[in-house]
């Protein structure tokens, strides 16, 4: 991996104001090795924010993900996981993690659509509102290109994929944060496949013993998509959407037991196999 660069052209159409962010006192660093001193700091901060809500994987899972090599395919998919830190001096002011996924080739001459699963992101209060969130959405495009290159594939198109809470399903205390996140991603050009037609769930991240004591409880979420360069399009084919969800579930299945993934694969199998799905605004 080459060092991350600040590439204004990678910003989403609605994030152009982020070009004004002053990087002179900031530096961005990618972490690919759990022996990197930043690894523990990033993971601990992510766990503090998301662990209690059951939205963060265990440390051992993240260590294993960092070892993924795009040259070693997982059910035909190339995977690269990455942690990103933005520092002001030695202070951690922004961080995120994500996975680039290159699906199996659809055949000679078929375009390669690389997707990036955007897992978690934090911008500390001192840097909020200045454009850093927009950059933390744009930097993963470099991971997508690097993953495709390492796998010996082209990168013809990139889709950034976020998993968002349904605003009407969140708790009253959590609603302001959920709505703020949806508004931010909506301004950036993210849209959702019609949730009445596409039912999406994240796996149950509880420890296996807890799942076995009850049953898998997948988390209902909506998909937020930025189809880079095609943000103006208002439809997505079912084939593209199935390819995208297959890639995400293949990533999750590396560390989830098959019986715990079974409800998610069954839901994917029930999705229509042809046609178009409307891409709707994240908020009305």
Write a brief structural summary.
The protein has 284 residues and is α+β, with helices and mostly antiparallel strands. The chain has helices spanning 37-50, 59-66, 132-138, 140-150, 175-187, 208-213, 238-253, 258-269, and strands spanning 27-31, 78-88, 91-102, 113-123, 157-164, 191-193, 200-202, 219-227, 235-237, 276-281.
Give structural notes:
α7 packs antiparallel against α8. Strands 1-2-3-4-5-8-7 form a 7-stranded mixed β-sheet, with helices on both faces. The protein has a 3-stranded antiparallel β-sheet with strand order 6-10-9. It has a single domain (13-281), classed as Gcn5-related N-acetyltransferase (GNAT) (Aminopeptidase). It has helices at residues 37-50, 59-66, 132-138, 140-150, 175-187, 208-213, 238-253, 258-269, and strands spanning 27-31, 78-88, 91-102, 113-123, 157-164, 191-193, 200-202, 219-227, 235-237, 276-281. Mean pLDDT is 92; it is low at 169-174. It has 8 helices and 10 strands. It is α+β, with helices and mostly antiparallel strands. β2 (78-88) and β3 (91-102) form a beta hairpin. The radius of gyration is 18 Å and the shape is globular.
């Amino acid at each position: 991996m080459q060092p991350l660069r600040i590439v204004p052209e990678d910003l989403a159409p609605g994030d152009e104001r982020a070009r004004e962010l002053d990087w002179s006192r900031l530096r961005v660093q990618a972490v690919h090795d759990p022996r990197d001193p930043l690894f523990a700091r990033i993971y601990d901060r992510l766990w503090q924010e998301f662990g209690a809500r059951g939205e963060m994987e265990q440390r051992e899972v993240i260590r294993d993900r960092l070892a993924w090599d795009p040259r070693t395919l997982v059910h035909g998919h190339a995977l690269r996981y990455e942690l990103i830190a933005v520092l002001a001096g030695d202070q951690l002011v922004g961080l995120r993690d994500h996975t680039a996924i290159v699906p199996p080739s659809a055949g000679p001459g078929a375009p390669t659509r690389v997707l990036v699963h955007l897992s978690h992101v934090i911008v500390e209060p001192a840097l909020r509102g200045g454009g850093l969130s927009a950059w933390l959405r744009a930097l993963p495009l470099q991971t997508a290109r690097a993953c495709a290159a390492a796998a010996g594939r082209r990168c013809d198109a990139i889709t950034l994929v976020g998993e968002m809470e349904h605003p009407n399903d969140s708790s009253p205390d959590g609603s302001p944060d959920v709505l703020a996140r949806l508004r931010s991603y909506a301004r950036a050009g993210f849209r959702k496949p019609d949730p009445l037609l596409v039912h999406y769930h994240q796996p149950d991240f509880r420890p296996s013993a807890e799942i076995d004591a009850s049953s898998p409880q997948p988390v209902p979420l909506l998909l937020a998509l930025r189809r880079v360069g095609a943000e103006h399009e208002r439809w997505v084919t079912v084939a593209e959407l199935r390819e995208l969800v297959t890639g995400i579930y293949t990533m999750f299945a590396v560390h989830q037991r098959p019986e715990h993934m079974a409800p998610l694969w069954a839901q994917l199998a029930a999705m229509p196999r042809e046609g178009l799905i409307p891409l709707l605004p994240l908020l009305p």
